Amino acid sequence: MNSVVALPRATPVLDRLQRWLPKLVLAPSMVVILVGFYAYIGWTLVLSFTSSSFVPNYTFVGLAQYWRLWDNDRWWVASKNLVIFGGLFIGISLVVGVLLAVLLDQRIRREGFIRTVYLYPMALSMIVTGTAWKWLLNPGMGLDKLLRDWGWTGFTFDWLINQDRVIYCVVIAAVWQASGFIMAMFLAGLRGVDGSIIRAAQVDGASLPTIYLKIVLPSLRPVFFSAFMILAHIAIKSFDLVMAMTAGGPGYASDLPAVFMYSFTFSRGQMGMGSASAMLMLGAILAILVPYLYSELRGKRHD
Amino acid sequence: MTSAVLKPGLTPSRVLIYAVLILACLMYLVPLVVMLLTSFKTPEDINSGNLLTLPHVFSTLGWVKAWATVRGYFWNSVAITVPAVLISTAVGALNGYVLSMWRFRGSQLFFGLLLFGCFLPFQAVLLPASFTLGKMGLANTTAGLVVVHVVYGLAFTTLFFRNFYVSVPEALVKAARLDGAGFFTIFGRVLLPMSVPTIMVCVIWQFTQIWNDFLFGVVFASGDAQPITVALNNLVNTTTGVKEYNVDMAAAMIAGLPTLLVYVLAGKYFLRGLTAGAVKG
Amino acid sequence: MATLELRNVNKTYGSGLPDTLKDIQLKIAEGEFLILVGPSGCGKSTLMNCIAGLENISGGAILVDDADISQMSPKDRDIAMVFQSYALYPTMTVRQNIEFGLKIRKVPKAQIDQEVERVAKLLQIEHLLARKPGQLSGGQQQRVAMGRALARRPKIYLFDEPLSNLDAKLRVEMRTEMKLMHQRLKTTTVYVTHDQIEAMTLGDKVAVMKDGIIQQFGTPKEIYSEPANLFVASFIGSPPMNFIPVKPAGGRGRWHVPLATDLGQLSLPLAAGDADLDQRELILGLRPEQLALAAEGDSAVLQARVEVTEPTGPDTLIFVTINGTKVCCRLAPDLAPAVGEMLKLSFDAGKALLFDAKTGERLARESKTPAEGSAGNVAQFRGR
């Protein structure tokens, strides 16, 4: 029995090309990623050590831009806002998400429809969300007019123009957008819990809330972790929502670091200080990310 | 898992559960309803009624005016999104193929760098990126935004495909190599036909991300090259003239409809993309 | 068809790492069926990948029909492979799967159709040609995978544990079928398995591997009756060979090993030539079928008490303790005593093997039967 047909022998050149092809294909992306992410971060780092203002210059001023940030009241407001916004946004989204997931896990009719409703805000642009909530919370014409029309005559709601309260408005809109997604994550987690554990606990006489609090939710620790990561990440990068709802105002009362960075770098000609703020944002993300990745990798090794 | 937990039937606790769930539904729906109602009202209606009153006169004037204002930007967004989605998905698929089936020394390290890139805040690259776009003559163009979205979308598209292809048995590629197929033949004839769900997830993810983007749009484009999110923000936050809330809301609806539509039509893939790539935020 | 030779094939994944393959030497003739067998991680699959060209070798040469192919890319080697997972292209129909390699090789359409028809008929999968792999049972997928390999009529066929994903019954059926097919087509075949029964039943030649080294290369019969070392002896055969630690006594030419149970003792005589076996730590290897119930008048008999019996159907396995080690004997069911009973065992010492306890190597058997001093069951050994 002879071979049907031998493949015409490729020339050595073509052969070698085939061997190099995977690397050739990946090379452009490698360059783009290395430059676009890592070299650019380095560049931004360099800029943060210079006195660049409207145009970049390379007069090095050491840590001066960081000290200017330290002394800048607006940066402190932005940072404080991030703590408030991040804490509330993460906390409330987790509570709402877990609660809705647990309730939705009780053999609910029309579950698919309800889930779709909870999740749709995630498909919207933050700008759209911000626009909608800006209107809903409009002092005089939004929520407070509605409630006054419904008979609560003394009701006022002017947080959107209240320096001390405006950041909570952003929290409301952000929770509205992201909590449905957290619900979906936990629902998926709940569906993965081994039912026999619950049956065993029921046989042991545990009540339903106890089962959830003591057995089911603790077993979802990894989901909590990922959800926290995602929410923290959204919080630190939050920019669009504030821009659409308040543009940082009134004054700069609702600034977040991302907004600060944008306005100093691109509107106010403070590239050096803007770069320094960007590096601090990067640092904040790394502070969350590195321990997370570390524990993830370590966990994998234990398997 | 719940089959053993609760027996259906209208016990008081189940009534409570349904009440909470329905209330939550209303909370999530109210902003959309208000936007729709407001967009079909006349300015007088808006002034006299409240958020939830029905329009006295059903008016499409807001929509007409909004469309006239944002139409050009809407098509900008289309011109940015479509090529950026296609290119980043195609390149991501090839990258994922190499990173899973043709590993070489250093490819794992590259994948690690890529993964890390998914988490990095874009603020740390905005300035150098805008200098580069300027040098390339792409500042304030939709083409420039396509480039930016492709570059910064690559990490995610690669991740989607890489994660899918590592679940594909390597034996398939080995079999195809012994059958005489080369690098691209294996990809095109064997792997790509299997990847339809991943392509869907990736395309939908990229579409929502790019369409909804504001940061890149506001930093890298101005004037006529702006995407719709930037135009919407400008429209809503303009301080001159009389506020026309019906126009604002109609414009917001126009900006939100394409992604909402995708969500309604392909919710399954949307959720899968979110859970795989939500870290991007 | 073709011959296949491996010369000093080495494979390592980097300096500092242990060698994956070490000095592999093999040669099979045209049409022979070679089995690579060993525990998982022994390097057998790596070796197969190297032959296919899916992995590069670090040293040595792979020759097909005496031509070195070790630098060729897989597609140029004219080798086909059947994978453990079958690796059928899931989006293609069975026909497209079988055609794929031919189409890439730009075989004319008419010839492709002819080949598909031939292969489909041979494997009785004509009715499946329009289906996708997902719609096939495991056994059917297996046939399609073989069909894909056969259609190309390559010089050499490689099988990577092709039967291990099938259930037990189907596996036995397919084993017989593969043997029939090989007898018909006389294809040069390399077959990787960890199943020693497949190794014994299918192979013309068997290479037993461990830690990247070929422990023994020979016919199934050689591997079974003259294993090179303890590893081969224990790996091949089910239930496995009994290993009884012994210390020979006696003197030059008149060695014997003491065997003891709770109930009795026996000095099993050996003829060990000139070797000095005195007080060496050795291991006596006896296959379960080499222990039998003693007949009247047997001289070398050992009394023992039955501890466990395991009826398997055709045989009953009896376990006793000799020299502190559990020993298995395979007996006919109707002869088998019950648990707790006493029995008298005789030994087929002519087939018994001796291994060095330290190195695990078998002591080579004396080639000629020495005339001196032994009647009946005497094993003959020559020291090393």
UniProtKB/TrEMBL annotation, chain A:
For this protein, the parts annotated as crossing the membrane are 20-41, 82-104, 116-136, 165-190, 211-236, 271-294
PROSITE patterns per record = ABC_TM1
* Membrane-topology annotation of the record: Multi-pass membrane protein
Q: Which residues form the ABC transmembrane type-1 domain?
A: 79-294
Keyword terms: Cell membrane, Membrane, Transmembrane, Transmembrane helix, Transport
Q: Where in the cell is it found?
A: Cell membrane
Known CDD domains for this protein? TM_PBP2
Q: Does the keyword Transmembrane apply?
A: yes
Q: One Pfam family for this entry, by name?
A: BPD_transp_1
- Which family is this protein grouped under? Belongs to the binding-protein-dependent transport system permease family.
Name it: Sugar ABC transporter permease
List the source organism: Pseudomonas typographi
Taxonomic lineage per UniProt? Bacteria, Pseudomonadati, Pseudomonadota, Gammaproteobacteria, Pseudomonadales
UniProtKB/TrEMBL annotation, chain B:
Q: Tell me the domain of life.
A: Bacteria
- Where in or outside the cell? Cell membrane
Q: Where are the transmembrane segments?
A: 15-37, 74-97, 109-131, 143-165, 186-207, 249-271
**Keyword Transport among record annotations:** yes
Pfam families (alphabetical): BPD_transp_1
Its membrane topology is listed as: Multi-pass membrane protein
Note the InterPro entries from the entry: MetI-like, MetI-like_sf
Keyword Membrane (UniProt): yes
Question: Which part of the chain is the ABC transmembrane type-1 domain?
Answer: 74-266
UniProt keywords, alphabetically:
Membrane, Transmembrane, Transmembrane helix, Transport
Q: Which family does it belong to?
A: Belongs to the binding-protein-dependent transport system permease family.
Q: What is this protein called?
A: Carbohydrate ABC transporter permease
The organism of origin for this protein: Pseudomonas typographi
UniProtKB/TrEMBL annotation, chain C:
Q: Where is this region: Disordered?
A: 364-384
**What is one Pfam family matched by this protein?**
ABC_tran
Q: Determine if Metal-binding is one of this entry's keywords.
A: no
Q: Per the database record, which ranges form the ABC transporter domain?
A: 4-236
Which keywords does this Swiss-Prot/TrEMBL entry list?
Answer: ATP-binding, Nucleotide-binding, Transport
Q: Name one GO molecular function term.
A: ATP binding
The record, for InterPro entries, names: AAA+_ATPase, ABC_transporter-like_ATP-bd, ABC_transporter-like_CS, ABC_transpr_MalK-like, ABC_transpr_MalK/UgpC-like, Mo/tungstate-bd_C_term_dom, NA-bd_OB-fold, P-loop_NTPase
Q: Is the keyword Repeat assigned to this protein?
A: no
Tell me the NCBIfam families matching this sequence. Answer: PRK11650.1 (NF008653)
Q: Please identify the protein, giving its name as recorded.
A: Sn-glycerol-3-phosphate ABC transporter ATP-binding protein UgpC
Q: Which gene encodes it?
A: ugpC
